[in-house]
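pasting for ref
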Amino acid sequence: MKKLFLISVIVLGLFQPVLAAPEVVDKVLAVINEEMLSLSEFNAVFVKFALRAGTSVPPEELKKARKEIFNQLLENKLLLQEARNRNIEVGKREMESAIENAKKSIGGAEIFAEQLKKEGLTEAAYRDMVKESMMAQRLIAEAVRRDIKIEVKDYQDVYEKNIGKFREEDKVVLSYIFIKYGAGIAEADALVKTESIIKELNAGLAFEAAAKKYSETATAKEDGGALGTIKPGDMPALGVEPFRLKVGEISAPVKLPGGYGILKVTNKTAGKQYSLADEITDKDGQKISVREIAQRMAMEEKFKAKYENFIKKIKEKSVINIKVDEFK
């Protein structure tokens, strides 16, 4: 789970529909400088996470998520306490602007009020959450983000350490024929059939025609075995075999789950290693320089290190009593 400041998560996640959590008897999970962290506070975050995750998260990952959520809530308490100790305030105009932006983002004041009702929140309670979030963010801006400087060497080092991320991967246009085994068909028989088809292909049978005739996939007769363009990792079951083949080359039998495959690459585009001076297109379709991406990554690394040191110092001067063994 990515490390976040929990109050921000709660505020930003407010308008995601969730089911009502069952009422539980509240208990104290920890005491942080005489301020309690309760089970209800923990459940306000964890239950939403668990409901969104559904059954897709393994039990060991769910256990890990519980510990991380607890630690983040604890850190959030420390951040707010530190912000108050430093007399960090949020102005009325800033608050009003934040609330108005929240209303606009969800579709207007009426929908905003409906969502607050669904979440069991009053606008006053929501305002308190926003205020606390802004106080924590301002503390971090003043105590952590301020004075972080990125030198040329910083982003050059990041680029070198992550050079594989700045590469356009090889791509191939792939077709395949699939021969099943199992359900009464012996694996050895499927392999013999696969090898026989390869002999026909090498003798001149068109791959598309062979796929329509022999392939045991649901769409083979329609697409002639065409899989389209793939890059490394798109189809893990095929391994690196598609990228070893030359254009027009027919593969040896490739063992796959439940059958054997025959592969043919019809086109290949070599990858490219981008330099710091190059521009790439990001996921939003916007042009951005590799240098700027490396600078952002370097900034994030420095911020993370400085934040961890900052929160460590706050913990060292605090009195923290964790009352539940699971979270110790």
